[in-house]
Amino acid sequence: MDECDFRFNIVIVGLGLIGGSYAMALRQLRPVQINAIDMDKKVLHTAFEMGIIDKGCDNSGDILKEADLIIIALYPEETIRFVRNNIMNFKKGAVITDSCGVKIEVVEKINSFLPQEIDFVAGHPMAGKESKGFQQASKDIFKDANYIITPTKRNKKENIALIEKMAKAIGCKNVVYLTPEEHDKIISFTSHLPHVIAVSLMNSNITENDIGLFTGGSFKDVTRVAAINSTLWSELFTLNSKNLIDEIESFEKGIKEIKKAIELEDRETLTDILKSASIKRRKIL
Amino acid sequence: MDECDFRFNIVIVGLGLIGGSYAMALRQLRPVQINAIDMDKKVLHTAFEMGIIDKGCDNSGDILKEADLIIIALYPEETIRFVRNNIMNFKKGAVITDSCGVKIEVVEKINSFLPQEIDFVAGHPMAGKESKGFQQASKDIFKDANYIITPTKRNKKENIALIEKMAKAIGCKNVVYLTPEEHDKIISFTSHLPHVIAVSLMNSNITENDIGLFTGGSFKDVTRVAAINSTLWSELFTLNSKNLIDEIESFEKGIKEIKKAIELEDRETLTDILKSASIKRRKIL
Lengths: 285, 285
Fold this sequence. Notes:
2 copies of one chain form a homodimer.
Chain A: E1 9-13, H1 17-27, E2 33-37, H2 41-49, E3 55-57, H3 62-65, E4 69-72, H4 76-85, E5 95-97, H5 104-113, E6 119-120, E7 122-125, E8 146-150, H6 157-169, E9 174-177, H7 180-203, H8 217-223, H9 230-239, H10 241-263, H11 267-282
Parallel strand pairs in A: 1-2, 1-4, 2-3, 4-5, 5-6, 8-9
Antiparallel strand pairs in A: 7-8
Helix pairs in contact in A: 4-5, 7-10
């Protein structure tokens, strides 16, 4: 992207793994300014020293008033609270986006109190790491990632286009559009359920054995995301509980089915179950 | 390892992913000869052209008679059948090892008919890939892998030492000793269960959606091994069914517990469950 294309004054709210990564990736687009709001003054100082932000502030006062684009990289409930508490600080025409892994709750709540002249275009970069915090941030986490936008009727077309342009400019491969309802349903399967599974497998080890000596790649892969940010994911799971319960129950049925075939030592059925999974998996790169 | 240390005549039985990888890795130790037995003449020809075997044979006749070390890289039941059918072809003092992912069945059966002067030292290199076949073979699959040896009382110390030496020489990081019973119990948790889970998650997708557009790293990691060799893994699951059923049921209990906390939107319990998993996972590299 040509630098002239991104002449915005940007504020990033929350300089953790995701917010820090946004700052690093956006810096390369040479926007007018990238400023940041974070409670942690040390992180703000580090980010300033690294040259990825122009100004840092540990409270959201004047810094918001000049912002054209506000990227909130907080947990869902904090995101809602931040917008509510700063209603008076956004300038007319400002575009707000977020990075939350649940959408119905965030979009409905924020739109319920947001003035018409400020546009909230909700986004979900499907990027992350099992570790949290600014120290883990990297512009590369967006590379080839999926980015979901969940627009609503009140969003202006040019603002939706701006978020898509930004997502592609920071390296995302696919930008897809869903309603908040579709998002929460699909994500309960593609993201929340795998985390539930990884956690349950990891907790299933009740031995004192150093199991690291007896693992191959399969155990490590399936449990990788069990090294989880417990506060964030507890919030995501409960905010999407209905969809997630449905997906867990569908998964439980599958486990019962394969268990039965193993109990009966029914290799024919087992081979069919395994073949079906294998064909589906090979379709995903 | 000094090349003088490995002056053996080796026969590899089955030039698939594992057997082919053994040939490639062992070639670097410059043994006297590496010969191979495989049904597929094309694969034997390719391996010969690549210089990783000296002779290939599609039936197990004379080629076995000179072998000091026979490495069987077949499925468990084929491994047993191969040894049974070739009882007369092994020379006195020969060492046989295998690469099977279940041990009780293989060790008991083979030792029940193997003459005293031939030694079967069972081994399980915890290395692999989700794809099968010689085309996928690589000397690097053993790099930093775990290698489990399940010796029995009839094994000679020097023969056990030989398998350990070989495992380290081809790149394995940890060589650990277990009884066949311990092996099958631990592996049902660290290897068979993760495969059951990956397969069930993959099959749980009943939509026609192109879910690749909505996945992040978690879904891809948890389902990686769902691209499975269905014949081999059906055999492994059924040969280790009792242990595996126990582990599946313990995992099912964990899923029930987290599901309950999500249903109740009980964030405190959820955070505890997630924290416990996170701490355990961070102990495994």
